[in-house]
């Protein structure tokens, strides 16, 4: 079933790993899929005739492009992709898949995959807790979040509720 292309699609630049990366990314979230693989037509700086040039894929309803450009330009945290997770089980599942795929933990719910792309794995509860009109509660949640690597919904809720977490 072809997906509806987004008006704007982020394009991720790889040297030669576009198809490998797209396959990994679509394994992270249910309902994600590779939409199309475009091959090089003739030899180009991006690769030889018949090798992968661009991979169109859909991840969590958002379309992306993965481009094999032939040279590597490092990703950095100035651009990241935030994954809205319904609960702790989904946070754990996505986090563990990125980590098991060669990723590295950062801080405050951030993780970098083996390709260098930064992800924010965020429970849906976090914006609600941080946005509470009670500034004291929201500040406790922010402080708790800043001390976490992978976000812990129960820990965030305990901070919100004013419970001391050992």
Describe this structure in words.
It is a single chain. 30% of the residues lie in helices and 26% in strands. It is an alpha/beta fold and 166 residues long. The chain folds into two domains: 11-68, 2-Layer Sandwich (Signal recognition particle alu RNA binding heterodimer, srp9/1); 80-161, 2,3-Dihydroxybiphenyl 1,2-Dioxygenase, domain 1 (Roll), CATH 3.10.180.10. It has a four-stranded mixed sheet, covered by helices on one side. Helix 4 (135-146) packs antiparallel against helix 5 (153-161). The relative contact order is 0.14.
CATH class of the largest domain: Alpha Beta
At CATH's second level, what is the architecture of the largest domain?
Roll
Distance between the termini: 49 Å
> What would you call the structural class?
alpha/beta
Number of strands: 8
What would the principal axes of the Cα set say about the shape?
Answer: elongated
What is the makeup of the main sheet? 4 strands, mixed
CATH homologous superfamily label of the largest domain:
2,3-Dihydroxybiphenyl 1,2-Dioxygenase, domain 1
- CATH fold-level label of the largest domain: 2,3-Dihydroxybiphenyl 1,2-Dioxygenase, domain 1
Tally of contiguous helical segments: 5
Q: Mean pLDDT score, rounded?
A: 94
Beta-strand percent range: 25-35%
Task: Give the strand order, joined by hyphens, for the main sheet.
Answer: 1-4-3-2
Low-confidence stretches: none
Question: Portion of residues in helices?
Answer: 25-40%
């Amino acid at each position: 079933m072809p997906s509806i292309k987004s008006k704007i699609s982020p394009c991720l630049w790889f040297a030669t790993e576009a198809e490998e990366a797209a396959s990994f990314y679509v394994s992270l979230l249910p309902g994600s899929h590779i939409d199309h693989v475009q091959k090089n037509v003739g030899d180009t700086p991006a690769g030889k005739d018949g090798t992968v040039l661009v991979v169109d894929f859909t991840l969590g309803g958002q379309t992306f492009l993965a481009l094999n450009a032939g040279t590597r330009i490092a990703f950095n945290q100035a651009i990241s992709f935030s994954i809205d997770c319904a609960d702790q089980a989904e946070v754990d599942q996505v986090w563990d898949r990125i980590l098991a795929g060669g990723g590295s933990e950062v801080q405050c719910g951030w993780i970098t995959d083996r390709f260098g792309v930064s992800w924010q794995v965020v429970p849906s509860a976090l914006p609600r807790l941080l946005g509470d009109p009670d500034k004291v509660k929201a500040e406790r949640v922010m402080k708790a979040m800043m001390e976490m690597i992978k976000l812990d919904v129960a820990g965030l809720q305990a901070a919100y509720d004013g419970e001391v977490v050992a």
